[in-house]
Every structure is written in structure tokens, then in C-alpha cells.
Design goal:
Elements (H helix, E strand, L loop, with lengths): L6 H13 L2 H8 L3 H15 L4 E4 L2 E4 L1 H29 L3 E7 L1 H6 L1 H11 L3 E7 L2 H9 L5 E5 L11 E8 L2 E6 L12 H5 L4 E3 L4 H12 L8 E3 L2 H9 L5 E4 H7 L5 E5 L8 E7 L6 H10 L2
Helix pairs in contact: 1-2, 1-3, 1-4, 6-12, 10-11
Length: about 300
């Protein structure tokens, strides 16, 4: 059986060989001479050969000892370099964080928070991917995403096993209409009233589209947009042209329907008070860069 070679014993051997004396090496390494002598004996036992010739005048190296000294110096230098690298790594948060987020988070909240995070942690790279909330959660569960941001599951608040969640932002739904539209005078607009007018949909099959379809079914009505586009800016452009009205998150309405050509009204439903969450696969410990981003996104 191969005996274990202790790296600390190798360091002590190098120090003793350089000093030419166990006593002087013990002073340098801040260890008792008797303890250092025992560790050198353990090293010789591990190599199964004498490394030192001991005499009242000090110590001298055997042929095997000279070989261990040459290699041991390099090993000690590499270990010290590794220690410095680890300490440097620990002093600064660094690395790459894979962030998956839904469209409204990317538009309405992430730019400013990511700017603040990157200013505080310049050695961290954030790899951002825009996905539907369902795909954000799947990416977290599959460990393809370190951090996810998506719509809170109002109808199913129970998280999938192994996933953690924290509040990110409140992003209620609003109804966007042209300034000359019949609904522009309303202070709030119910979902049933909105369904009575031509609607512009966004991202067919996405989280918002599915949610509105389910809510319409619960009212025994049909959510059937006259047309559907792939982005919030395109939705607002269609509304501006008078092709219909749209139900979009407040963040998107503020970004793309903030001019005087639009009127934005709250969707008068309890379920319209939509929340966004930060998600992450539960890990112990979590990478420092991931923890730092989660803390920043939580506000």
C-alpha cells in the first residue's frame, strides 16, 4: 500500500534542507524541533528511504533527499501560488452567471438592476437569455440557468421541488387603448369589458396569453385576439394604429405606450395584480456570484 505523503511535511523538509539544521528550520516554521523531527521521519517512512543524514553538526541530504528537495521546492511554490489564487478569488466576486428572464422583466426592471450589479461586481459576467416564464422555470430546474426571473404562479403557488423563489417586482396588468377610444374615459376596465373589443395579443402560447385565455374561459367567454405579435412594442404600435386594444404588464405599457397617443388604465381584476419572482435551483453552498446577483435582484 502506498503511504500518504503529506504536503506540509514536504514543506518542512524543504525548509530543513535549506537551513541545514532542524533547530533553525523549526524556528523558521514556528514549530517545535521535536515535532519537526517526527514529521521528517514520517516523510522518510512514506518514501521508504532515508532523506537526511543526521549528525551533531546538523543535517545533510542523501541522494534521495536531493531529489525530494528539487521536486519539493516546485511543489511548495505551486501550493503557495494556489493559496494566493484562492485567497484572491475569495476577495472578489467573479465568474459568469446564467440569467433567464421573461420579457416584461427584461423590459421593465432588469436594465437598471443589472447596471447596479455590474458596477458593484465588475468581475462577474451576466449571460442573459429572454424566455417565457415556463421556460425560465424549466431552465432553473435543469440547471441551465443559475438565476431566473418570471411571473409568480398565482394559481399554483407551490414551487417545484428543489426551487427557491423571492419577490422581484410588482407588475400589474393594464389595458392600453388609443386616446380616442371609447374606453379611454374609463378609470378602470374590467376584463369582461375589454373582451368586448378587438384585442391585440402578444406572444401566442406565452404565459400572459395562456393566463388571459384561462381567465376568459372562467367567464364563459373567448379570448380571441384579432392578431398576435411577438413583442410588447409591436403590440403598442398596433394599438396606436387603431387596430385594437391590448392587455400588457404595466412595465411594458410604460416603456412603449407612454406618449399622449395612448391611454393606460388598470385592469380591474384581483388577478391582474401580477408579481414577478426571482427563482434559483436550491444549492448549498451557492456560488458567490449567483448569491450576489440574487441579492441585487431582490432589491
Amino acid at each position: 500500500m502506498t503511504r500518504r505523503i503529506d504536503s506540509y511535511n514536504v514543506r518542512l523538509f524543504v525548509s530543513a534542507a535549506r537551513a541545514g539544521s532542524i533547530v533553525r528550520a523549526a524556528e523558521i516554521e514556528n514549530i517545535a524541533p521535536s515535532a519537526l523531527s517526527r514529521r521528517l521521519a514520517d516523510l522518510e517512512h512514506a518514501f521508504e528511504t532515508p532523506l537526511l543524514v543526521r549528525s551533531p553538526r546538523g543535517i545533510a541530504l542523501t541522494d534521495a533527499g536531493r531529489l525530494v528537495l528539487a521536486r519539493g521546492e516546485r511543489i511548495d511554490e505551486e501550493l503557495q501560488a494556489l493559496r494566493r489564487e484562492v485567497q484572491t478569488e475569495g476577495a472578489e466576486v467573479r465568474g459568469t452567471v446564467r440569467l433567464y428572464a421573461n420579457m416584461s422583466a427584461v423590459i421593465g426592471f432588469l436594465p437598471e438592476r443589472l447596471k447596479r450589479f455590474m458596477a458593484a461586481h465588475p468581475a462577474v459576467t451576466v449571460s442573459l437569455h429572454e424566455e417565457d416564464t415556463r421556460d425560465v422555470l424549466r431552465a432553473c430546474l435543469d440547471d441551465r440557468a443559475d438565476v431566473g426571473v418570471g411571473v409568480g404562479m398565482v394559481d399554483n403557488p407551490t414551487l417545484p421541488p428543489g426551487l427557491d423563489a423571492w419577490h422581484f417586482a410588482t407588475d400589474p396588468l393594464q389595458v392600453v387603448v388609443p386616446v380616442d377610444h371609447a374606453l379611454a374615459s374609463q378609470e378602470k376596465i374590467s376584463f369582461a369589458l375589454a373582451l368586448a373589443h378587438p384585442l391585440i395579443g402578444v406572444h401566442a402560447g406565452g404565459a400572459l396569453d395562456r393566463s388571459l385565455m384561462e381567465r376568459a374561459t372562467a367567464l364563459h367567454k373567448t379570448f380571441a385576439p384579432t392578431m398576435s405579435v411577438s413583442s410588447f412594442d409591436a403590440v403598442c404600435r398596433m394599438v396606436e394604429a387603431g387596430l385594437g386594444i391590448a392587455i400588457v404588464p404595466k412595465s411594458a405599457a410604460a416603456a412603449y405606450a407612454g406618449s399622449t397617443r395612448f391611454v393606460r388604465r388598470p385592469l380591474d381584476e384581483l388577478w391582474a395584480e401580477r408579481a414577478l419572482n426571482v427563482y434559483a435551483l436550491r444549492k448549498t453552498p451557492q456560488l458567490r456570484a449567483v448569491t450576489a446577483l440574487i441579492d441585487c435582484l431582490r432589491g
